Every structure is written in C-alpha cells, then in structure tokens.
Amino acid sequence: MTTKLLGERVRRVEDERLVRGKGQYVDDLLPDALEVAVLRSPHAHARIVDIDVEPVLDIEGVVAVYTYDDLTGAMADPLPVLIPHPTLTHGRTQYALAKDEVNYVGEAIAMVVAENRYIAEDAVSRIRVEYEVLPAVIGVDAARAAENLVHDDVPGNVAARMEQSVGDAEAAIAAAPHRLTLDLEIERSASMPMEGRGTVARWDTDSRRLQVWTSTQTSTGVRAAVAAKLGLDLAQIDVITPDVGGGFGVKILHPWPEELLVPMAAMKLGRPVKFTEDRREHFISSAHERGQKHHVEVGFDDDGRLLGLSVRFWHDHGAYIPYGLIVPIITSTQLLGPYKPGNYKVVFDSLYTNTVVVTPYRGAGRPQGVYVMERTMDAIAAYLGKDRTEVRSVNFIQPDEFPYDHGLIFQDGKPLVYDSGNFPASLEKLKKLIGWDEFEAFRDELRAQGRRVGIGMACYVEGTGVGPYEGAHITVETSGKVKVAIGLTSQGQGHETAFAQIVADELGVPFEDVEVVTGDTRRMQYAVGTFASRAAVMSGSAVALSARKVRQKALRIAAEALEASVDDLEIRDGMVRVKGAPNQQMSLGTVAVLSNPLRYAFDEASQAATQFSIGDPDKPPIAEDDEPGLEGRDFYSPERSTFANGMHAAIVETDPETAEIRILKYAVVHDCGTLINPLIVEGQIHGGVAQGVGGALYERMVYDDSGQLLNASFMDFLLPYVSEVPDSIEIDHLETPSPLNPLGIKGAGEAGVIPCSAVFASAIEDAEGFPITSMPISPSELYELRLRHEKGSTT
C-alpha cells in the first residue's frame, strides 16, 4: 500500500547531488565559451565625457568591445520597471551600459569579450574614461535634504510617496490615555549567495535559436526580457536554470544588464559567451536591501491596547528603482503583524541615492516592519510596566476573527486579508519553548555570577503565495515513471523532494518514480518565479491540480480497459486496481500506452495494450475534449495571498566588559498551514535564523560620503560563522491550514529571518536596560551606547 507522504520528513533527493559536489552551475557550462569582463564606474555620480576603447582593440585574444554607442533598437532603451505602481511617479532605471552618466560605484560602462576572463579583465583595465565627477547623495538623510539630486529631473530625490490609512490615526492618538514616539532605523545589507550572478548564451545561426543558461530566480522572466530587447520571438529562446547556489532575492531582478549583453554578444559573434560575477562585483553592482528610517507615533490605553498608530518612513532604494515599490509596500502593510491597530496611518517616501539598487532580500521589507511594530510593543510594555507578552496578547487578532480584513492594499494589489492563524496558541507554545516564565530566576542565577543576560521576543505575519499564477505539467511515461515540470527555479529549497511528495500522494505512485524538473522554459514556458515564499503555495497547488487531472484520466482509461466503473478503481503503488479484486489491475505505464491511439507495445509489461487489443470501432480514437498521452497541465491562480505567521524568542548574554553578544537559546514557533515536509521547513527556519543573526549583529553596507563601499569583501563584510549562530534552535509547529488553496499550504521560505532584528533588539535591551533603536548592532556600538547611557544617567 502506498504510504501517505504529505507531512512526512522525507530526506531531500537533491542532496545526493548538491552535498557531494555533483551540482552543475552556470560557470560549469560551455567551458570553451568566450568570456566577459565589465568595466564598472569608480565614481558614485559622474558624467561620462569620453570613452576611449582604442587601447583595447589590438590586444591579442580580445574579440569585441561594447559601449552604449554599440547598442541598437530596444537594447539602447532603459531597462524596464518591472512592477509599475500609480504612486511611482518618478521611476528611473539604468541602461544596459551607461549612457552619459553613472549613478553608483559599480554601474556597467563597457563590456569586453575575450578568449578568456584574464585577457578580458586586462583589456578592461586599459579602457580610458574621462569623467566629470558630480556630488553624491549617500543615505536617507542626504536624500531627504535634497541639497543634491541623483537625477536632475526627480525633485527632492523622491521616486514615490505612498499613503494608506484606516480610521483616523491622528485623532485616536491625540485622544489616547497614553502616547509614545519612537525613531527606529535599520541599515543596508545584502543577500550574498554563495554563487554570484552568471549567464551563458549560445546562438545557433542555422536554426536561429538562442539558448541562455542563467543563475536566476525567474527563467521565464529572463526569457521574455531577452526576447523583447533582442527582437526575437519567445519560441526562438530557451532559458535554462541549472543548479543555483543561492538567491535570497538578489536573483529575482530580470533582466540584469549582463543577462541581455551576453546573449547579444553571442548572437553578434556567433560563438558562446559567458559572464561569471566575482565577489567584489556582487558587492558593488548587484543589489542591496533593508535601509530604512522610521518615525512612529502610537496611542494606547492602560492595558496596552493600540488605539492609534501612525508610521512615517523613508526607504533608500538606491540609484534606480527597477523592482518598483514592493519592499516599502510590504513594510507598510506587514508591520501590523498579528495585531489589530484600531486606527492606522502609514506614509513612506522611496528615495534615490547614489548607491547600489535595491531588490527584495529574504524577508523583503518585513524585517524592517516587524522591527518597528515589535519595538513599539516593547516600548508600550516598558512604559506601562507590563510583561511584553501581556501587551501583545491584548492586541492579537483572535482565532474566531479570521478571515481578518485590515482595510489596506497588499503588495499584490489585493485587500490585506489574513486567511487563518491562532496567535494566542502560538504565544503559549513559544513561552514554553524559551522558558519565558522561568527566565527571571535564570537571570538572578547568572547575575550572581557576574553575568548579564536578557530575553526578547517578536511576532510576525508573512504574506506568502503571492500570485498571479504558477503552472505544472505532469506526464506518466510508458515505463510508469512520472515526469513533473514546473516553471519555478530552485535555489536549494528542496523543490525536487517536496513536489514529488505531492505527486506521489495525489497519483498513488512510489516517491522514487517521480522526477521534478524546474526552471527550464523548454519544459514549462509560463511561470512567474521563486520569491516571496510562494513556491509551495503556488507551484504546490498547481502540481496537485495537474496530478488530479492525470489521475482522473488514468482512471477513465483503466475503467474502460478493465471493464469497471471509475468509482470502483483506486491507484496504489503505481497500479490501477479494482477495489476488492486484486487480480484485476494494470500499471500506470500500461495506462500510458493505452492513452495513445497508436498503441505499439515495445515491452512485455504493455503487451496487453497493443493498438488492436482494445478499442470500440464506433468511437473515435480520441474524444473531442481529450488529447493523447497520460499527462495533465494546470495552473493555480489565487484570489489573494495566504498569510503564514510565527513567533521567535531568544536569550542572549552581553559581556560586561567587551559588550560581545552571545546567543544562549533560540526558539521558533511557526505556522505555514499544512506541512508538506517538516524536515525541509525546519531547514528553511535554521537557514533563515542564521541569516537573521547576520542581519541583526554583523552585516551592513558601509558607504563613505563619496559613495565608495568601504567593506566590499568578506574580509570586511561580516557573515556569521557556525560559532555565531545558535547551537540548536527549538522549533514547534502550529498548523492552521489556509482555505485558499487545495492543500491548505502557506509559505515558509522567509520565516527564519523576518523577526530576528526585533528579537535581538528586545533581548539586548532587556539585558542592558536602555533602548535599542538601530540595527544591526555590533559590540563596539553596544559599548558606545553603554557609555552614553552611563553619562546620561549621571547628569
């Protein structure tokens, strides 16, 4: 009997390949391809007076040099704004190669194609560019001051201003028994996947077909961009995503300039061309995120219940805004978390600066929003002298209030309506996991030893499964093997395992007989992409719907062959059986043979299914509403996003002398609806927490006033090692299935990282006894805060 796999801790099938070094990445492909190096701006803001490529042209091994003047047609136009918005009144994007002006250190100016990367880089160093250096705008404060402009035609450096409100927040705050104001900041960070960006392209002159391999989170998006910019039909282009060494959001942008320039060069030169980004290039020319400043005004009653909340914030989106307003929109809506704010108003400005562009980084605006809301909750609790969990509890949306409509518009343009959850139950689980009620005794014990500890917590809600759609195509081979194609790419999330579990359950076939292919436009031409914790919800649902189509067709064909009613059939272990009559059965492979009217049988197992053995002469071989083959394709398009949620807590120790911060215990309660594979979900949480520790305590992008990134290497940009992340993470799950999709799934990919800055700020503040208002925080910064607090307390 086939074992039910949904919810089981199945080991990942892709690990055999990836962990043993058998993966194949972009840089492993087409080793004889020409290679690319890119000349990047050394200035944050400058006019390009002249570019002289003459010194490069005679270098042996150089094949071609391109500047903006070599771009024609749509390639000479700015890159697209991927997600327009009515409030994005001054959207600006860069050119594939800079035209007239550069606006951040690292912007692409010229591209050299050579026989190898060494020659290409040497050639790039010989290109002479004359610049007129302009004043640089670095950081939110400089952008708001608007003494200098990033783009001359963008007043005040403001690309967009957006406001949403429910009720009258200002009046409610003014009338509230208690009021507080807070100013909170999170600095820039970046995704830093192990593999940087990379693209390889090959043009077949005879067939006029272009093949592109790229390390991306959206193969179909890249395909559409390449077609539009190079004047090709979609049918002429195959985009294949091989193994991808991490994405975390930076590879969702499409197209990157190199994803257009490399195919263009391959077409012009008639030879394969390859671009592989090095680590410094990733720092200065890919994408950052997180940088925001927030001003909060809140009014509340004696119990800590929110009566009015007003948030004004400023988002630094860098020199261009190719990905639109997704990050600040998410902050503005998701900061509400599991709470009912009463009256709410939020206004944000999205600002240009002469720094690297912003794309979503794992969490995508939510870490900032959760930080703001949870710091506010902690401040209310401190003001009232109440336990921090008590203040949260009185503000929770209750289980019987779902679906809960906040009266706002979410990132997908649809109402912000939470579909399911049980926040009080999650809090009780978290308190037990972390030992919340026993902590004061623990603190006293360590205080007697001269040690300083604190406890913190944070709650979050995460919009997941954002549309508009995803699809799947499933084929049962005559061997009985099941082939599954989805348009999503995979960056290590375990798609090959999780989606195979769904198919095995839905079709009643052995897990080992299911093969999943991702991110290959030859197999699935229409898709959106892997981001926003949407893969399980969107593709998982599409896979389930497609499998159900295949199952229905298999039962219909088998019923005819076995002379039985469909209602009397079942599929187990890859066999279609008559219930209660085990001898009346046939394999799915045989059903696949029968699904084709040209029923040749090339193996013994399908001898019973020759073209002459079965068939009604009075019926056409294929019904009008059917097609040959045992396969099915379907698409899932949700009415709105699903909303996962969770709560984290941590106990930290801060060294009294060095101010070093050590994590003693970390706990997570997570609700992603129906669990496909708890092992994979827990892996996502572990990885997310590690990334969250980095974002809270180590990672930041440090620019000087001229726009030079001062820490553009792993020597200076600090990542947490295994010694800096928790030794173990206590995890518990709560399952409140979503009513919005066929499996009740909610997303899980960003759960680990979202609340970490808020958690650590809360715990450090609890240990130290003074407010923490800016993240990330380093030991040296904590030490300085101590000195300021001590000085302030004595004056």
UniProtKB/TrEMBL annotation:
Pfam families: Ald_Xan_dh_C, MoCoBD_1, MoCoBD_2. NCBIfam families: CODH_aero_grp5. GO terms for molecular function: iron ion binding; oxidoreductase activity. Residues 20-135 form the Aldehyde oxidase/xanthine dehydrogenase a/b hammerhead domain. PANTHER family: ALDEHYDE OXIDASE 1-RELATED, XANTHINE DEHYDROGENASE. This is Xanthine dehydrogenase, molybdenum binding subunit apoprotein. Keywords: Molybdenum, Oxidoreductase. It comes from the Bacteria. The keyword Oxidoreductase applies. SUPFAM superfamilies: CO dehydrogenase molybdoprotein N-domain-like (SSF54665), Molybdenum cofactor-binding domain (SSF56003). InterPro entries: Ald_Oxase/Xan_DH_a/b, Ald_Oxase/Xan_DH_a/b_sf, Ald_Oxase/xanthine_DH-like, AldOxase/xan_DH_MoCoBD1, AldOxase/xan_DH_MoCoBD2, AldOxase/xan_DH_Mopterin-bd_sf.
